[in-house]
Amino acid sequence: MYAYSHNLNQPLVKALFDLVGLYEQLKRPLNLQKDLELTKNQYNNFQKLKYFDLVSDIPGTAGWVPTSRGIDFIYGKIAIRNIAVSFGNKILAYNHQAWKSVRFGIVYVQDVDRKCYKQKIEYQQEHDNQLKIEI
């Protein structure tokens, strides 16, 4: 058996960005096909975000949610490795000997896709511009 590396790339980060934004609005698991407008590439590779512990699928449903780590990554609060290594159906722990032969970097979201990084002030501006409706 072989171990395979998976790179964090711009389409994956954009898909995570879209998931986080809609999840924060709706506060429920999201269906990739019905709720998000993903490209075929993003849809086919979305599950790779699990390898980085950025998303989680809800068992028994077709729903996905961002992890707290995924949300923190999109907000620019944490950096993560830009490569995940899988062996079979498991992700190798960072202390596994196979990592010795893998060249990886530590990246923030803005290192992968500057457009997907929203700072707190931008979120506040969006909130301030929302329509206020009294019920």
In short:
This protein is α+β, with helices and mostly antiparallel strands. The protein has helices at 10-26, 32-35, 40-45, 48-51, 68-74, 109-112, 120-129, and strands spanning 3-7, 30-31, 55-57, 63-66, 80-81, 83-87, 90-91, 106-107.
Give an overview of the whole structure:
This protein is α+β, with helices and mostly antiparallel strands and 135 residues long. The protein has a single domain, classed as Orthogonal Bundle (Arc Repressor Mutant, subunit A), CATH 1.10.10. Helix content is 39%, strand content 19%. The chain has 7 helices and 8 strands. It has helices spanning 10-26, 32-35, 40-45, 48-51, 68-74, 109-112, 120-129; strands at residues 3-7, 30-31, 55-57, 63-66, 80-81, 83-87, 90-91, 106-107. The strands form 3 sheets. It has a 3-stranded antiparallel sheet, with no helix packed on it. Strands 2-4-3 form a 3-stranded antiparallel sheet. A hairpin with a 2-residue loop joins strand 6 and strand 7 (90-91). The longest helix is centred in the N-terminal third of the chain and has 17 residues, at 10-26. The protein is globular and about 40 Å long. 20% of the residues are buried.
